[in-house]
Amino acid sequence: MSYSEILALSRQAAAGGLGPWFDDRLKAQIDAGLFLGEDQLGKVRDRIIRQLADYRDQAGVGTAVLGMSGGVDSAVTAALFKQAGWRVVGFTLPIRQDPVETERGVEACEALGLEHFHLDLSPEYEAMVAALGRVDEALPQADTNPARTRRGNLRARLRMIALYDQAHRFGGIVASTDNFSELCAGFWTLHGDVGDLAPVQGLIKSWEIPWLAREVGVPEKTWRAKPTDGLGIGGGDEAQIGATYLEWDITIFAIAEALRENPQLTATSLADALELGGDDHARRILDTVLARLRMTWHKRVNPIRFDHPLAHRFALIDRTDESLFRPAVLRQQDATLAPSTDRGGALLTPEANGSNAL
Ligand SMILES: Nc1ncnc2c1ncn2[C@@H]1O[C@H](COP(=O)(O)OP(=O)(O)OC[C@H]2O[C@@H]([n+]3cccc(C(=O)O)c3)[C@H](O)[C@@H]2O)[C@@H](O)[C@H]1O
Ligand SMILES: Nc1ncnc2c1ncn2[C@@H]1O[C@H](COP(=O)(O)OP(=O)(O)OP(=O)(O)O)[C@@H](O)[C@H]1O
User: Which residues are in the NAD/GMP synthase domain (predicted)?
Assistant: First the structure.
C-alpha cells in the first residue's frame, strides 16, 4: 500500500491533499499498521467472505436483501454476500432521488449479478411527511437543519420498512451496509439504514471500503462516486460531517491512540496531547470530530440498558442461546488481523475496533 494510493482512493488528492498535521499523522499511522496494507486487507476480505458463508450454512438463511443506493457501501456489501454464495436481492428505492444515483444502483446490480427490484417510494414519503405535518407544521415546511434531518430520517426508515418486508417475503435477512467511519460519526439513522448482519462495519471509509470495492468487482463509477447520504439533507457526507473521510479516520485513530497513552485526557486537553501546534485547520477538524462524538456516543450503545437490576437475566438467555442454537461462526475467536506493531495492535483489539452497536 502506498501513501499516494490512500490519497487517491479516499478522493483526498482531488480535494488538494492533506494539511501538515494530517499528513504527518497519516504517515505515522501507515507505519503503525493502522491503515491496513493490501496483504492484510486481502485477508480481511477472505475472512469476511468465509464468515458470511459459514453463517449461511450454520444459521440456515441464504438470502440477503439490501437497498442499492448507487453508493459504494451498499455495492461492496452486496458483492461480499454474493461471493460468499448468498442469493442477493438489491432494491433501488429512490425517494425524490437524483436519477444518476439510481442508475448507478441499477448498474451495480447488473455488474454484480444481483436480482434487482425497483420501487419508487416518493409518494409514500410525501404522504408520511404530510401526515406528520398534521401534528407539526415545521416538518413539511421548515428549511432548517433539524427539519431536513428529520425528513431524511423518515426516508431511511421508510426504506427499512420496505426492506424488512421483502426480507420476510424471501425468507432472508436485511444486510447492513454501514462502515466504521460512519459508526464513529453516528452517521446513520437509528432504526433506519441498519439491518441484521454488518460485514463491513469494521472498515474505514477513506481507504478500506473503496479498496475492497475495487477488489470485488464493484463498478469504478461507484467506488469513485462522491459519498452521499441519499437523504436530501444536503452537501454529501463529508460536507455534513465537516471533515473529509480521510481526515475523520486519521483523527479518530489519533484520539484513540492518545487516550491509550494517557487515559486521563479530556476533550479539552486532547488538542495539546495531539500536538496540533499552529495547524488551525487540524484544530477545527478536531473540534468537529469531538462535537460529533459528543452528539452521537449514545447511538453506539443503543438500546441503553444501564446497569439493570435484573441484568443477570441477560446473561441467562445469552448462555442459553450460546449453548443451544447460536451458530458456531459467532463463537470463533480467531486471531484478529490487528497490525503487528505495539501501537497499532493495541488500538485494533476486537474490543476497541468492534462494536455491536448497530
Ligand atoms: N442522550 C440520548 N440517549 C439516548 N438516545 C438519544 C439521546 N439523544 C438522542 N437520542 C435518540 O437519538 C435520536 C437521534 O438519532 P437518529 O434518529 O438516528 O438521527 P440523527 O443522528 O439526528 O440523524 C441521522 C444522521 O445520520 C445521517 N445519515 C442517516 C442515514 C444514512 C446516512 C448515510 O450516509 O449512510 C447518514 C444523517 O445525515 C444524519 O446526520 C433521537 O431522536 C433520540 O431518539
Ligand atoms: N436510493 C436508495 N435506494 C436503495 N437503498 C438506499 C438508497 N439510499 C440509501 N439506501 C440504503 O441506505 C444505506 C446507507 O446509505 P449510505 O449513503 O451510507 O450508503 P451508500 O449510498 O451505499 O454509500 P455512500 O455513502 O458512499 O453513498 C445504503 O447503503 C443503502 O442500503
Answer: 47-253
Of the ligands numbered here, which is closest to the C-alpha atom of 102? Answer: 2
The alpha carbon of 210 and the centre of ligand 2 are apart by a number of angstroms equal to 15
Which grid coordinates are listed for 47?
Answer: 475472512
Does some domain include residue 176? yes
pTM (predicted TM-score): 0.94
Here the CATH number for the domain that contains residue 33 is 3.40.50.620
pLDDT at 333: 60
Residue 265 lies in a domain: yes
Residue of the CA atom closest to atom 41 of ligand 1 = 190
- In short, whether 49's Cβ falls inside 6 Å of ligand 2 is no
For residue 229, report the distance from its CA to the centre of ligand 2, in Å. 6
The Cβ-side half-sphere exposure at 350, using a 13 Å CA radius, reads 6
Cis peptide before 303 (omega within 30 of 0): yes
Q: At what angle do helices 99-112 and 72-83 cross, to 10 degrees?
A: 10
- Number of folded domains that form the chain: 1
Cell triple for 334: 480467531
Domain annotation covers residue 354: no
Mean pLDDT over all residues of the chain? 92
d(CA 242, CA 292): 10
Nearest CA to ligand 2 atom 5: 67
Interface predicted TM-score of the whole assembly (ipTM), two decimals: 0.97
- Give the C-alpha distances (Å, rounded to integers) separating 120 from 99, 169, 172, 274: 11, 19, 22, 47
Please name the amino acid found at residue 222: T
Ligand 2 atom 9 nearest Cα? 69
Name the residue with the closest Cα to ligand 1, atom 13: 190
Domain assignment present for residue 355? The answer is no
* pLDDT at position 332: 67
